[in-house]
């Protein structure tokens, strides 16, 4: 019943519905990061951090990913249809993902009054490498098995844990494994 209602909302108001869903799930990912990864009790949560994450999901990622999926759906190789899926995954991972991660870390650095350049140096490459270990497989399922109007929802549900990871990385600048790789 609720799923049918949600699907109807996606068809009637795709941008608003998917942006709101994304905002809620980005916020939920941050709450997961703070409670599970950081062991905070509800009264200890940094609610401004949660609002920043939800705001990014609502205003940036939600609308952007919906437009991106409409664009990427147009990738078609008439002579070689077996290339459609790898081309979509490749485009997603080398075009959309780097832009999204740079915007995500830059957004958080800016709102926290930190250096955007330093945030990107410390966090971008570790995050993109972690992304490449998970998201190509997720997108293979997404682009082959999930109906087009539900792809943003599917990605958002899978991304609960991923958003917890990103939220932790955006908030924590002291962990050694987040440092930009130094050349010797």
From TrEMBL:
Annotated localization: Membrane
Record flagged with keyword Transmembrane: yes
Stored InterPro entries: Mpv17_PMP22
Lineage top rank: taxon: Eukaryota
Gene Ontology CC: membrane; mitochondrion
Transmembrane helix recorded as keyword: yes
Topology class, membrane: Multi-pass membrane protein
Keyword annotations of the record: Membrane, Transmembrane, Transmembrane helix
Main location: membrane
Family (UniProt): Belongs to the peroxisomal membrane protein PXMP2/4 family.
Protein name per UniProt: Protein SYM1
Organism: Ascobolus immersus RN42
């Amino acid at each position: 019943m609720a799923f049918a209602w949600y699907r109807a909302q996606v068809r009637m108001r795709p941008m608003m519905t998917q942006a709101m869903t994304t905002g809620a799930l980005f916020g939920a990912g941050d709450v997961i990061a703070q409670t599970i990864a950081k062991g905070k009790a509800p009264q200890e949560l940094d609610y401004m951090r949660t609002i920043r994450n939800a705001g990014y999901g609502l205003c940036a990622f939600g609308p952007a990913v919906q437009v991106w999926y409409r664009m990427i759906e147009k990738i078609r190789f008439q002579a070689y249809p077996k290339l459609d899926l790898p081309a979509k995954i490749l485009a997603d991972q080398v075009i959309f993902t780097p832009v999204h991660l740079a915007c995500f870390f830059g957004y958080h650095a800016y709102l926290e009054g930190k250096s955007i350049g330093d945030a990107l140096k410390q966090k971008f490459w570790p995050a993109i490498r972690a992304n490449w270990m998970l998201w190509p497989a997720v997108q293979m399922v997404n682009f082959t098995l999930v109906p087009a109007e539900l792809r943003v929802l599917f990605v958002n549900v899978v991304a609960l844990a991923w958003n917890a990871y990103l939220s932790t990385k955006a908030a924590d600048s002291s962990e050694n494994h987040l440092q930009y790789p130094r050349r010797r």
